[in-house]
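May I ask for a sample protein chain and its fold as tokens?
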Amino acid sequence: MAEKDINSNGFRHLRRGWDSVRNPFGVEQPVPVLVGESPNTNSSMASKAFHYATLRLRLPAWGWAALIISTIVWYSLPIPHWPNLAGFLVIWFIVPAAPWLRVLGIGLFIGTFVTLLGDAGSVPESWLIGKDIANWLDDRVDWMVSQWRPALKTGSDEFLRRALLPLEKWLLALPWWLVIGVTTAIAYKVVGRRLAIVTASLLLVLTVLNLMEPALSTFAIVVIATFISAALGIPLGILSAQSNRFQSVLRPALDTAQTMPSFVYLVPVVMLLGIGKVPAVIATVIYAVPPMIRLTDLGIRQVDPELLEAARSFGATRMQLLLKVQVPLAMPTIMAGLNQTVMMALAMVVIASMIGARGLGIEVLNGINRLDFGRGLLGGIGIVIMAVVIDRISQGLVKDPMARDGTGEGEDAR
């Protein structure tokens, strides 16, 4: 049978099987019939799939027999490395059009049997440098602690005394009903009536659960961390958009900050600044600033080049081009980055509570330490309520104000 006929029959049977999945109740539907296809095919979907697989593989009968015998022999041997065989079969069956993948599969298959080549842990001792790197890093951090800790500690105390504590004390001094009223009014003005009702209801639940005070402490940390992230992220994003070389240097640092576990960079921060709210803010900024940089860069790069050329033709300077054309047109994307920054800062509240930041995170942490499921669950509910309210309001800031009428009726609160 020719290869063209094989592929045609295979895809025809695959389409029939897909139609049976889309129409599980047997409702009559018009199905187009390919040329040369019998419309009265009553084979089951399993047999169709098997038929398609055999055609797709283009294996003769002896090939199937060899594979079956190899599988039986394999499972009869006392070898625990059966996933290699499974991976080999998957590569051989599913990707027959990629010979290099078949070669890799054969290599895995052979490497499983040839145990003389060693295993994953049989690396020569002289090649291992992990301990040396760890010791070198420990020495550098110890030097930083001895040289920088006094100055950094003084600076962190000033930051705590002049920025974070005043904001937190002011928020905690507000009456609970005023917090609910102001937040509801902001939600009504920014998004619409439905979100205002949802916001008032959720904040009322937060209040009756006795979580309003820790929620405001958490909100103070989120506000400070978001402000610092925006102050760092927007200029860096603009520089990254203006220079491809700077972007190529900045991108690995952003990838590292986003993928590195938060506990890793908590260690040097705590060693330099001790336990408290300022280390929590710094760790939150490290975690939350990459989306601000990336989306600022993306928004400026997506500005229409024709608009930039028109502005240049009218004699706009480089600074005017940036401040009056690029940044305003990129503002929706920048605000989306701010939204993501806020969400990532809020996601750090539980980890921040481990190094001295109080708030809703401490409720979850105490629930874990004391095996108190109820307390941990209520703290988690408080974090969810804060996330929903902040996310919906910040998303409303990104949308076009013209989408709302004068009564403040906006889109539905999804």
About this structure: Residues 130-173 form the longest helix (44 residues).
